[in-house]
Amino acid sequence: MKIAVIGGGPAGYVSALTARRAGAEVLLIERDELGGTCLNKGCIPTKTLIYSLELLDRIKSYQYSYQSNLFNFPIDLTTLMQKKDTVVETQKKGLIMLLKNAGVKIIKDDAELINDKTVILKQSSEKIRSDSVIIATGSRPAELPMLSFDGERILSSDDLWKMKDIPKSITIIGAGAIGCEFAWIFHLLGSKVTLIELMPRVLPMEDEEISRALERLFKKRKIEFYTGVRIEDLNKKDETIDIGLSNGKTVISNIILVSVGRAYNTEFMKDAEVKLGSRGEIIVNEYMQTNLEDVYAIGDVNGKWLLAHVAYREGEIAGKNAVGENLKMDYSVIPSTIFTISEVASVGLKESEAFQKGIKIKKGVFPFRAIGKAHVIGEIDGFVKVISDTETDILLGAHIIGPKASELIHELALAVKLKARTKDLKDLIHSHPTLSECIGEAIADIHGEAIHKVER
Questions:
Q1: Which residue of 92, 114, 342, 372 has the fewest CB atoms within a 10 Å radius of its CB?
Q2: CA–CA distance, 182 with 409 (Å, rounded to integer)
Q3: Is 162 exposed, middle or buried (0-12, 13-18, 19+ CB in 10 A)?
Q4: Active-site residues: which are they?
Q5: Which positions ≥6 away from 51 have C-beta within 8 Å?
Q6: Whole-Å CA distances, 120 to 26, 35, 112, 113
Q7: Is the pTM of this model over 0.85?
Q8: Is 302 exposed, middle or buried (0-12, 13-18, 19+ CB in 10 A)?
């Protein structure tokens, strides 16, 4: 069996490895860099910068004595970018070795899908015939009519990696996950940061209490934000850009980052009859199949969940189904993580979603400032919030804002996946002193039994 995979990002390379390990002959076609947006321009580069900058920030703020300004480390953008490049290249070399050792043939070229069995390589004009085609072409930053990318002053998240100097000020359009992460990065770099969001709150897709908590932290750090507003006017000057908002305010900034979502990379399907949805995404069923039985679409391009870890799983499903298995993709329990001032993580239902479904819930909330480990590491902001079904006591969802939220969420994700009852979960003993104690206390709070919570 021969399988052609178009796109070498998280979805594509995982599907290639999966199909190859099942015995198929696999061709992996990538026009740019293996690893896709995640490795080259997204997850790994941003987290490398965040880790380095947060380390400097903590050292500067952590006082071993009563002296202030004990440490003063200047930020060198060139050094930071070199560190980022080293991490990316190391990961990329490992990925290439992994694919080659597995026997996946890697082709660097542009691909065009002709039909469900045929792909043409544009540069070599070679026609590749296969039993199945797996599309994993990903997405790109979406533009706004008034804010077309120019690569110099109106930027996409891709453009930022070419930056040579730290801007004095930056306005970020869109306060979703990407916008909030870059707001944190540029704040740590020393820029004056302003966020503009059309929806009523920052991180509008997260639990409302989490969003409001992040807004308070933004205010504490003097990161400005305007929510529920539109851009009415744009005026470029020699050194700055004036942005007129629907609330009558004008924001003045050196550069603008547009972070309003993603556009799907489907331009390579000129003649193939693959159906697209209203947003330009490729429509797939639960088996990751398109309307063409032997063509699969995975990762960002199918518009389901634009997350690398979801792409990994979709890649496994498509890779196995392409060689004859019949597996369904399960989206019911997907952890989401955002790396901003305090990390944000969630899984399962939000309180508002439970209300919309007519589910009566109980809620438990516990603050990090009430546990010793948070004070030890100097990160006391935030809380853990959990919700359960009143009738069944099954844990339905969990939401965290605070230190190491991206790591802590998985204990709760497993509990949601297993449909665990909170009465059972609250009996689990958490090691002390750890941040995970906050989870145990939040679960106990559902039953009014949180030990370290002050009664009100």
A1: 372
A2: 22
A3: exposed
A4: 432
A5: none
A6: 15, 22, 5, 7
A7: yes
A8: buried
Q: How many CA atoms lie within 13 A of 439 on its CB side?
A: 31
For the segment 262-267, the average pLDDT, to the nearest whole number, is 95
Distance CA 306, CA 300 (A): 5
Average pLDDT score over residue span 224-233: 96
pLDDT, tens digit (0-9, with 9 covering 90-100), for 90-116: 999 999 999 999 999 999 999 999 999
Task: Find the DSSP H helices in 327-432.
Answer: 351-356, 372-376, 405-417, 422-425
The pair of three-digit structure tokens given for residue 156, joined into one six-digit string? 């996409």
| Bridge pairing between strands 224-227 and 231-236 | unpaired
Six token digits for residue 155: 């930027």
- CATH topology assigned to domain 342-446: Enolase-like; domain 1 (3.30.390)
The pLDDT value given to residue 271: 74
Distance CA 429, CA 440 (A): 8
* Residue linked to tokens 């110099």: 152
What was the pLDDT predicted at 58?
Answer: 84
* C-beta neighbour count of 221 within 10 angstroms: 13
* DSSP notation for 313-354: HHHHHHHHHHTT--PPP--SS--EEE-SSS-EEEEE--HHHH
* 106-127: average pLDDT: 94
CATH number of 2-139+263-322: 3.50.50.60
Say how far apart CA 414 and CA 403 lie, in whole Å: 20
